[in-house]
Amino acid sequence: MKVKNFIAHVRKAESIDEGESDILYLKDWHYTREFPQCKAYETPPYFASDWLNEFWDSHSHGECSDADDYRFVYIGPKGSWTPFHADVFRSYSWSANVCGRKKWILFAPGYEQQLVDKFGQLPFDLRLVNFDISTAEKCFEVIQESGEIIFVPSGWHHQVFNIEDTASINHNWFNGCNVDICWNYLKQRLKEVEKEISEHRQMEDWNKHCQLILKADSGMDFIDFFNLLSLIASNRMKQLSNCKLHLSKENLMILQNCSTELIQSENECRSSVCNIDELDAHVHHLELDISDNVTGLEKSSLREEMDNDVGSRKYLFDTGYGCVLFDLLRVKYFLENEFLSADLHKLGDDDRFVDTPDDLISKISDIIDTVFTCEM
Known about the structure:
The protein is built from twelve helices and nine strands. The protein has helices spanning about 5-10, 30-35, 50-60, 180-195, 205-220, 220-240, 250-270, 275-295, 300-305, 310-315, 320-340, 355-370; strands spanning about 25-30, 70-75, 80-85, 90-100, 100-105, 140-145, 150, 155-160, 165-175.
C-alpha cells in the first residue's frame, strides 16, 4: 500500500468502530532514510548518543546493500495499536507525538512474566488478558499528549494504543550505557537458534549458519555487532586525535573514574528505579557524585573551560570531550571482556571484519596515551 492510499484509509476510519481488525496502522516507515534531504526534525540532545543509527548510517554510503536505520514515523487513526512487545535488540526507544494522544502500558524488565500463559507465552494483546493494571506489579499506564516525548528504557515490555488520530516519530538506539543489555540479548537469541538446529551441529560451517539465522531473526549477527563497536571506536578516536587538550595522568584517571561511576550507576538504576520520582532523585545523586569527582581536576585549560560552563554534568553528558572518552573506554572494556577470547573467524567470512579485537584495543590505548600526555 502506498502512503497516499493509507492516508485515504485514515480519512475514512472515523466510520470504523474502535478495536476492529480492519483499522490499519502505518508503522516503521523509514522516513528519514527515504527522504534524507528533508530535515523535518532533530534528535533531542538527551537521545543524541546513538551508536545503532551511527553504525547503520555509515552503511548508507557507497554500495552497501544492507543499509538500514532505526528511525521511524508512525501514523495511525483512533483505535489503532501495537501488540505487547519489547523493542528490537532490547534497545532504548523514544517516541514523540507530533499530534494525537497515546495510551502506554509498560512493564519493568522481568515483571512481564506475570502475564505468561500455561505454555510460557506472553500475550499478543493485553486486552485479552485477565489482569488488573492497578494491582499488577511494576506496571505503569501513561497517557502521552500531543507534543510530548516518552522514553522507554531497555527491556521494558509495552503495548500502545492510539486514543486519537496520531502521528509520531520513533527511534530505537543504544549506546555505552545499555550496550551490554543488547549484547546479552543477541547471545540469548543465538542460544535459542543453536538449540533449534542442534541436530545439524555436525554440518559444515554450522556456526556460520547459526549466525545467518540470527541476523535474519534479529537484524544483526555477532560480526555486525563487533563492527559496530569498531566503527564507534574509530569515530571517537578521530575526534580525540583532533583534540588539543593535554591532561595529566592524574586528570585522566579522574575522568576515567567518572566514566566508571556512570556505568556502575546506570546498572544500579536499571534494577532500582521504578518511577519518575526515584529516577529524578537518582539523577540528582549522580550529578552530585560526578561534580565531587570533577572538582579534583587541577587547573588546566579543561578545568577553566568547565569553570565557565554550567557544570560538570553538562560537560560529561553533552556530545563533548567527556562523552568521547566515555564511549572509548566503554568499547575498550567491552572488547576486553567479551570479544578478546572469542574466535570470531569461525562466525563469518574474513572480509566482513573491519578490525580485530586485539588491534582495536591497542589502537584505543595508543590514542589515549597520545592525547593525554603528562604535563611537565
